[in-house]
Amino acid sequence: MYDVIIIGAGVVGCAVARELSRYEVKACVIDKCEDVCSGTTKANSAIVHAGYDAAEGSLMAKLNVKGNQLMGELSKELDFPFKRNGSLVVCVNKEEMPRLEALYERGAANGVKGLQILSKEEVKKMEPNITDEVEGALYAPSAGIVCPFNLTIALAENANANGVEFKFNTEVIDITKKNDIYQLQTNGEMIETKYVVNAAGVHAGEIHSFVSRKKYKITPRRGDYFLLDKSVGDYVSKTIFTLPTKFGKGVVVAPTVHGNLIVGPTAIDIEDKEGTNTTKEGLEELIKKVGISVKGVPIKQVITSFSGLRAHEEGHEFIIEELEDSKGFINVLGIESPGLTSAPAIGIMVADLLRDLNHLSKKENFISKRKGILDPSTLTMEERNELIQKNNTYGNIICRCEMISEGEIIDAIRRPLGARSLDGIKRRVRAGSGRCQAGFCTPRTLEIMVRELGIPMEEITKSGGKSYIVMGHSKETI
Ligand SMILES: Cc1cc2nc3c(=O)[nH]c(=O)nc-3n(C[C@H](O)[C@H](O)[C@H](O)COP(=O)(O)OP(=O)(O)OC[C@H]3O[C@@H](n4cnc5c(N)ncnc54)[C@H](O)[C@@H]3O)c2cc1C
Description:
The chain is an alpha+beta fold. It has helices at residues 11-20, 59-78, 97-110, 120-126, 148-161, 204-209, 280-289, 339-358, 381-390, 406-414, 422-429, 442-453; strands at residues 2-7, 27-30, 47-48, 82-83, 87-91, 116-119, 136-140, 144-146, 165-167, 172-178, 181-186, 190-198, 218-228, 239-242, 252-255, 261-264, 268-269, 302-313, 319-323, 326-333, 397-399, 404-405. It has twelve helices and 22 strands.
């Protein structure tokens, strides 16, 4: 019997778990996937938005600006990559300059600090590869870029260190309420709890329907991306947007915190809530539109493409509330962009709500800090040599593209809530994220996993479920 069950181990569920773990509470996060960060949180633009885009006075605007402000301190506390690189919204048409000014006004009203409208010359000086058609741009110095995987993993690990349990491969298939207790029927056990937080992303509408007469329609709005090689990672230094449309913020060109260049997304409404395949049409649209803001983007340096699904609710607003007709059930629904940015603020808002509802008291021994996986590339040559002397697995390079050592992979597996799949390792230490996209390192990473997890290679998956990599020994079939 739990006090709180959080459904969904994306950035939102994990942020709620981390903030809730400040209190004396028996809480558990459950997810149908095999790891944290397996839904929308793993496939987005990774931008920490400044906050000029959301409608003035909306909850989305408030949480965006607060989340942006919290991100810097949080990245230090929980040790994940974050950089305030600033953003530009580029205007290429003189007639549209008033729209840029309207964005500036909205941003100022939302409380975004440091906004400036730049002239053509100023923009070109700041970003030489901006299109020659530029008329002006809105500059937001507070915008940033983050590693969505490490942000989420850090939140989860810290929540876990403070007592929150995690159950994976656990899908909620029905919820009933008896005598003020929620009974969550999953694909395995039945779990009882006093409070439920619905942070199930694109599936939050279905979870909500188990307990309420009111219906929410969540449309998966797919966004396709290209990820470009690190050799062109500095093609722009700021995050470059075009003027937004009713479908979103347009095609973005941005550096990533790991040194790649990201181009995307599209915005295509689909039916399938698991439909994260890219399409030829989507990728062609990116190629067509990328030049609107940045000239000559070296798109042929693409190393992979992927897509993510926005949980678009018709009102385009974050819905965070206790249900009127189902007390103790809290929706965190419609968390589309800027959900990643807002997550730290959403976490606080929901934890405050639960504290008040359940009269929770603060934990005396809350652990506020978490140390991430050691990245030997941040060490000096002397420090690195010393590390290898102490532990020679740090001298065994497994992923040659990203220069990831065996020591880092072992840490990714052994730490609490450690990696159990190839993608889990990739999200934690980037083995397989480079130019060859795991072509060379997969067999070597698999060998480490076999040894560390004590399971046969045939049981290791790419991303849980039946995504097995090795089907058997080749000579067995002869
Ligand atoms: C194309 C695109 C670009 C974006 N760009 C940005 C950006 O640059 N900046 C920004 O701030 N935001 C951005 N966002 C938004 C951001 O990615 C999301 O708001 C955020 O990741 C949502 O997190 P979440 O935890 O709500 O959802 P998710 O990460 O999807 O997590 C929900 C979890 O619930 C689990 N779940 C679902 N159903 C069940 C069930 N029945 N039982 C158990 N578990 C279940 C899923 O497995 C999943 O792990 C973007 C989104 C997209 C799609």
